Every structure is written in C-alpha cells, then in structure tokens.
C-alpha cells in the first residue's frame, strides 16, 4: 500500500546534505548538515553547532534531534 502525503507533511529530501538552521522549543537553535530523517521527523545532523542568544556558536558535532522538539527548519545552503 502506498503512503499518501497528508496536508502539512514536510518533504525533507530537498534539505538532505544541505546546511540547515533548526529552531527548537525552549528558544534553542541548531545549525548543521542534514544527513537523514525518519517518519517522526527525527533528524540526523553532522557538523552541528548550538547557536546561542548572542549568536555565539558552540560546536556539537554529530547529533540526533527529536522531531517533537522541532519548531521550524530553514535552509542556509541554496536548495
């Protein structure tokens, strides 16, 4: 059975291998290269940085972000 896209579903394929900025709940922002995602919108990032309120960058490296914590995603690299 083929899965149909529901209204509001996000197609993350266009963001793969691109640098993205992700806003999380609790006013946190992460930048990194998107390497993968799943049906729950959990994201795998490499070369990730935590962006502080003062625009300081703290290196994280590789990480997994839980989909439930994500508020929005924007591309930094051209799509």
From TrEMBL:
SUPFAM superfamilies: Sm-like ribonucleoproteins. Pfam families: LSM (PF01423). InterPro entries: Lsm7/SmG-like (IPR044641), LSM_dom_sf (IPR010920), Sm (IPR047575), Sm_dom_euk/arc (IPR001163). The keyword Ribonucleoprotein applies. Residues 7-79 form the Sm domain. GO terms for molecular function: RNA binding. One of its GO terms (biological process) is mRNA splicing, via spliceosome. Signal peptide: none annotated. The keyword Iron-sulfur does not apply. GO terms for cellular component: catalytic step 2 spliceosome; P granule; precatalytic spliceosome; SMN-Sm protein complex; spliceosomal tri-snRNP complex; U1 snRNP; U12-type spliceosomal complex; U2 snRNP. Keywords: Ribonucleoprotein. Belongs to the snRNP Sm proteins family. This is Sm protein G. It comes from Streblomastix strix. The lineage of its organism: Eukaryota, Metamonada, Preaxostyla, Oxymonadida, Streblomastigidae.
